[in-house]
Write a structure and sequence with these properties.
This is GntR family transcriptional regulator. The protein is mainly alpha-helical. It is built from nine helices and three strands; from the N terminus they run αβααββαααααα.
Length: 219
């Protein structure tokens, strides 16, 4: 029997589809949406959508408002402060451990990837394709630190927060026009990790995250 029809699988597919559409800006912060509209977006059964609503509410991605329906989370000052504080707590510890434990080859890969992107950005005018690639590199480095912890509880909590962080990025300050400074900040973090000095690496990632937080709060 095809396991794609199993309730648990459908729930996970519905959740993944919801977050994918959210990050693709098909669903916008503050937008009201019905369960049937989510069925249309995801292509999954109404039952699966109903089952993920409590999870989305618990994670702060959705709010049910009586008489009006379901509302996608607002991007407000409180969300920005809380999401970045959570990110800072998680990534400081993750980077400290990564600095000590990461193989030299992994650090070399990160440096090569960022130097190539920086050189590309300095050599020509930014294009949407370049900025999309830079954004992927940006997010992937942060995910790498958390993945290296090999802790499922932390990974799941970080994933929920990363959806909020990425929504904040999209609404408040996209990487568009900022490829060079972002790559340089990342290279500062990588250089600190290459020194195998956890305190130096923590200071570098803290500065990078604080810069992003301040950009988000400016608007």
């Amino acid at each position: 029997m095809d396991d794609s029809s199993e309730p648990g699988t459908l729930r996970e597919k519905a959740y993944a589809s919801f977050t994918r559409h959210l990050l693709a800006r098909d669903l916008r912060p503050g937008q009201f949406v019905s369960q049937r509209e989510l069925v249309a977006f995801t292509g999954l059964p109404l039952g699966a959508i109903r089952e993920i609503v409590p999870r989305l509410e618990a994670e702060g991605l959705l709010t049910t408002i009586p008489q009006r329906g379901m509302q996608i989370a607002h991007i407000d000052i409180n969300l920005i402060r809380e999401a970045f504080q959570f990110r800072l707590f998680m990534e400081r510890e993750a980077v400290a451990l990564f600095t000590v434990n990461a193989p030299d080859a992994e650090l070399a890969r990160l440096r090569r990837e960022h130097e190539e992107m920086l050189a590309h950005a300095l050599a020509q005018a930014a294009t949407p394709e370049m900025e999309a690639k830079a954004q992927t590199i940006d997010w992937a480095m942060h995910d790498t630190f958390i993945d290296a912890l090999d802790n499922e509880i932390i990974a799941k909590a970080y994933l929920v927060n990363s959806v909020k962080i990425r929504l904040i990025h999209q609404e408040r300050f996209r990487i568009d026009g900022r490829v060079v400074p972002v790559m340089r900040e990342h290279l500062t973090v990588i250089e600190a990790m290459e020194s195998r000095n956890p305190q130096k690496a923590v200071e570098a990632i803290s500065q990078h995250i604080d810069n992003a937080r301040r950009l988000a709060l400016q608007i």
